[in-house]
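Project channel, design review

CF: Before we commit to the Pediococcus parvulus constructs, I'd like one complete example in the thread so the newer folks can see what an input/output pair looks like. Taking Glycerophosphodiester phosphodiesterase.
RD: sounds good, go ahead.
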Amino acid sequence: MLTKIIAHRGSKGIRPENTLPAFEKAIEEGADGIETDVHMSKDGHLIIMHDETVDRTTSGTGRIYDKTLMELKQLDAGSYFGYEYLGTRIPTLNEVVQLLIKKKFTGLFNLELKTDKIQYPGIEEKVSAYMNQQKVSFQIVYSSFHPQSLVKMHALNPSIEYASLFKVQTKFARKFYRSRIVKDWHPDIRWVRAHRFFLPHVQLRPWTVNSSEDMRYCFKRHFDGIITDYPGRAGIIRQAIQGG
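CF: and here is what came back for Glycerophosphodiester phosphodiesterase:
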C-alpha cells in the first residue's frame, strides 16, 4: 500500500491556507487526502479556518465566534499570501464539501474540529448533521485535539473513522485506541522521530511533514499517511521510494 499524501489545509505551501484555491490545487496535485479545520460563527455557521481568530490570515481582527457569517465573508483571506489572491474569501464547510463533490474527489477528507481552545456549543451535532445529509464519494475522518469532541462525534457516528491528534501527550490516544473510538494516530512528526524505536502498531499519519528528509523517512517506513503543506513535492518523492 502506498503511503497516503494528505494536503494540510489544502496545498498550504503554495496557496493561501484553508481556502478554495488551496483545496483545488491539492486535488490538481493528486493528493490522496485533504485536511482542514472547522469552527463555528456567532450565528451558527460552520467556518473553515485554522486559528480561532481571523488575525493571521485575513484582513480582519477578532474571534470567529464573535462574528456572523456575513461579517466573516467581508474579509480578505488571500492577499496576505500574494496579490493574485486578493479577494479570496473564508469558506464554509458546505462550500468546501460542494467543491470536493464537484471535483469528484474520492480520497480522504480529514475534518479537524477546532475545539481544544473554544468549545463551540453544539458544533459536533452540527457537523454530524450536515455531513450525514451529504452524498459523498470520499472517505470522512474526524479528528480533534479535544478528547471530548471525539467522544461526542463517535457517539453520533460510531461507524465513521476517527483519529487522535497530539503533539506530545498520548494518554487519550492510547485510551481511545484501546476502546476502539479511534483507528488512527495523527502525531507531530517530531514525536514520531523521538519515538522511532518504540512506535505503536497503529495507523500513523504524522504532521506536518514538509522537509524532503521527513518525507523520505515516512515513505521508507510505509506509514499509512503523511499530512503535508506540499502534496505535489511529496508525490514526487513517494514515486521515487514506493513507486506506484
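RD: helpful, thanks. The longest helix spans residues 231-242.
CF: The two ends are 9 Å apart (CA to CA).
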